[in-house]
Amino acid sequence: MTQSATPSAHGTVVSVSRDERHRFSKPAVASIRLLTDFGVEGDVHAGATTQHRYLVKKDSTRANLTQVHLIAAELFDDLRAAGFTVAAGELGENVTTHGLNLRTLPLGARLHLGTAAIVEVTGLRSPCSLINGYQRGLMKTLIGTDAAGHVVRKAGIMGIVIAGGTVLPGDSVRVELPVGEHLPLGVV
Q1: Euclidean distance between the first and the last CA atom of the chain, given in angstroms as a whole number
Q2: What is the C-alpha separation between 123 and 92, in angstroms, rounded?
Q3: Which residues pair with 179 in a beta bridge?
Q4: Residue 172 phi/psi, 5° resolution?
Q5: Domains, the chain, with CATH or none
Q6: Within 10 Å of residue 29's Cβ, how many Cβ atoms?
Q7: Contact 97, 71 (CB under 8 A)
Q8: Backbone phi, then psi, for 23, in 5-degree steps?
């Protein structure tokens, strides 16, 4: 499938979160500042090279493809229906959106957040076992299979900061699709 790099969808920022320490959840804040090629200012996962504890152990020089974690707020409604109570930031995301099916975006899609910030989508988040420590059984709900037997990861998407800027709840999110063939997201 090929399409031009024109806007294809719009959504809204519901919440923004950051944490300077490695903890499972990130507290919601009034705003976050995205720094080009670095991530969320003041967040433990910001950096040019990977900051995720598991990935650092594998290769500390690896480029950081997980600078920004985004989750659609609609996931929380699905989780609530399955018996879980999860709010914005509690799954460790930096940006919670509404109105976009983030998991179906192609690799390289660009999310224009607010007036200046741009995040390029690098892949799917693969939830780690810490999720079960947060709420027992939650990981199984966030990783499932579709009717064809394909693994479906629901814990959000990851991206890198292409253009910096401040992001606030209520800001618009505009999707810019990549030019050329649209590749599905893999796990980063």
Answers
A1: 23
A2: 16
A3: none
A4: -80, 155
A5: 17-177 (2.40.33.20)
A6: 17
A7: yes
A8: -130, 160
